Amino acid sequence: MTISPGTSELLSSAGAPAGTRPPSGLDDLWKELHESPAGQGGLTGQAEAYLVAKRLGVASSLYFSLRARHAPTAAHCLRVALCGSCWAAAAELPDAQRDALEIAALLHDVGKVGVPDHVLLKPGKLTADEQLVMSRYRLYTHEIVAACCASPDVLNILSHQGAWYDGSQPGQVECGKRLPLGARMLSILDAYDSMVTEHVYRRALTRERAIGELFACAGTQFDPELVEDFAALIEHNLLHFQAPMIRRWLRELEPSNMHGLLRDEPGRVDVRLLSTPAATDSLHEFHAQLLNSMHDGVFFVDTRLRILHWNRAVERITGIQARTVLECPFSPELIGMANEDGEPIPEERCPVAQVLASGSQKLQRVMVRGRGGRAFLVNLHIVPVSSAHGERKGAAVLLHDASSQVHLEERVQLLQERATRDPLTGVANRAELERVLPEFVASHQEQKIPCSLIICDIDHFKRINDIYGHQAGDEALKVFAEVLQSAAGPGELVARYGGEEFVLLLPNTDADRAVRLAEEIRRNAATRPIASMANQCLTASFGVTELQPGDTPDTMLRRADRALLQAKDAGRNRVVQLGCGWQDNLEEVPERRSWWSRLLSRGPADLLVTRRLVSEVPLCLAAEKLKGFIADHHAEILEVLGSKVRLRIDGMYVPLTRRKTDRPVPIEVVVHLEEQPLELGDRTSRMRTGIWVEVRPVRRRERRAADFEARARQLIASLRAYLMAEEAGADATASSPDDQSQDAAVP
């Protein structure tokens, strides 16, 4: 299957054509879709209900049963179905195949209603026995859907979901191209959405790292040709063009015209009767905002210890996102709770459960596990909650940092309070941003914890000045700055970068949360009418990136700016994220040798660092990622010979100087890319990319060898992150592929 030539036209058709509107009472839904050309940010409960009801008719009851049981799984099914619809349209699949894929994707996890709560709702990794119980859900899915589905194509996809392309799964009969096309596509879509979604036991992967994982499993778990097609669509921002697919479901599809896919005639579904089982719906907006702006962590549990609310401070303290734990049972193991001596607190001595049983408040000092597994002390204050009639409702739990260490978030907050403010908007100015950013990056690199940067730009700002005047433009800047500040939490810095551009620094934040925050800001700005602009609202474009190995303040900012340019090129009013984020498997920098030992071991002309890397992505994709490395490091291309590129990175972008009088160290980087076959057995193989890297100073008699070695390793770590590469293994110190006689001196 190949992507059709009309794909770019299809993906760019974000405007809402005139057509049938939803029934009365859903005007807000249509307006939401019409004003959201990117189809981003998730759907409201009513929007989700209406889409599913339109697509499945009476069979939508299966979907809503799953949503009532476990809302995150149902939302995952809807995302997979919308992405599958985009993919099928881009590949110009026949309508019958596209319909079968969409319905199978919407219902592919419905069998999880038969999985016991202690397995389905467990906030952590499953044991081997629990994985065996969970694996049965596919059988349940097939049995449930078969009772209401008359389409052999849908049932064929569901009966083969989870099958590996190489046929290595136990009990698997078919393999390779004999597997249904829809099942092979669903396998990729299911895995991709799972990887880019936050879980309690695993951080969400960035888009680049998720694609790298798909390529790593191509030929074994996934169809390698389909992986390449899917990666090409992701490069065209597939996830940003779901709006045309949503409008197709609303405009074109009628449950009565399902071509016999479902048994019986579907009845009319009144989506106004459908509600979203979100735990936070019962909270007043002001209360929710207050909780999220608190520096102390706060979460609520009901009488069955199910988590009802989880504020941003708890997310920051524990590294666990709220949407991954809501409705899940709380246990001390979830946050690594231990006593002051470090001994884990068992479930039978859970202080929250004790308060629910006794009805008395409890104040206790415990240790909890934060990001990166670091433990620190907190004062745990647990308060029982009862109704006016004395009925026990649950408990409120407060986490107050009791450690003596001044955390990075607090230091950033102090910097923000002391910042030099922009006189118009009241946020930090560019000079303060440039002062804070190096410390921000260095601190997170040292601690190896995630942090993110968002750069945003008001769309068509010049047009605002030209039409409404400069006073209206100033008012627009103030309103947008207010939206940014209201979304920023404690320790997060908002700065005006210049003109209509703003930057947000987000400590201890990965790309997944940063993208969701950017989407929230985008939506809030689009709903704030401005009086001086005839009550029109603003739109804005956003570029998001997460700190990755080898980053400098300059490369991180440039990568976010490149994402912003992509958002503008794609039509504005959208969020684009670039960068693979932090990787935990980087090599440790060896201990420095004394200058005397270095002098005895080699001459000045021998300064050379080489590495042999391997990336699971094909050569064409690796070359595209290399372009991003070149742009963000402001590298000069000296020579291109086939797949070999020679670069120069000047000293102004290589901050190695320790004294103001030091001269910068210009560095030359040679990158050689070569396509390599990887044998997978059974006479099958796939292609990956071998990478040979050489780093040397431009001035061969450079005396600051220690500085050069540190910068060389930093550049190689950065290149690895951009190309999603790993060390090649035992041959890491082998000779260059085009100069086998050269001896590589690896420091």
Task: Please characterize this protein's 3D structure.
This protein folds into four domains: 48-266, Hypothetical protein af1432, CATH 1.10.3210.10; 279-401, PAS domain (Beta-Lactamase, 2-Layer Sandwich), CATH 3.30.450.20; 408-578, Reverse transcriptase/Diguanylate cyclase domain (Alpha-Beta Plaits, 2-Layer Sandwich); 598-727, Alpha-D-Glucose-1,6-Bisphosphate, Chain A, domain 4, CATH 3.30.530.50. 40% of the residues lie in helices and 16% in strands. The chain is built from 27 helices and 16 strands. The strands form three sheets. It has a six-stranded antiparallel β-sheet with strand order 12-13-14-15-11-16, covered by helices on one side. Strands 2-1-5-4-3 form a five-stranded antiparallel β-sheet. Strand 7 and strand 8 form a beta hairpin. Helix 12 (207-216) packs antiparallel against helix 13. The longest helix is centred in the N-terminal third of the chain and has 20 residues, at 71-90. The chain is globular and about 75 Å long.
Question: How are the elements arranged and paired?
Answer:
Blueprint: H1 7-12, H2 27-34, H3 45-56, H4 60-69, H5 71-90, H6 95-107, H7 117-120, H8 128-135, H9 137-146, H10 152-159, H11 181-195, H12 207-216, H13 224-235, H14 243-251, H15 285-293, E1 297-302, E2 307-310, H16 312-318, H17 322-325, H18 351-358, E3 362-369, E4 375-386, E5 392-401, H19 408-417, H20 430-447, E6 452-458, H21 461-468, H22 470-487, E7 493-498, E8 501-506, H23 511-525, E9 540-546, H24 553-569, E10 575-578, H25 595-601, E11 609-615, H26 619-632, E12 636-641, E13 644-649, E14 667-681, E15 684-697, H27 705-723, E16 725-727
Parallel strand pairs: 9-10
Antiparallel strand pairs: 1-2, 1-5, 3-4, 4-5, 6-8, 6-9, 7-8, 11-15, 11-16, 12-13, 13-14, 14-15
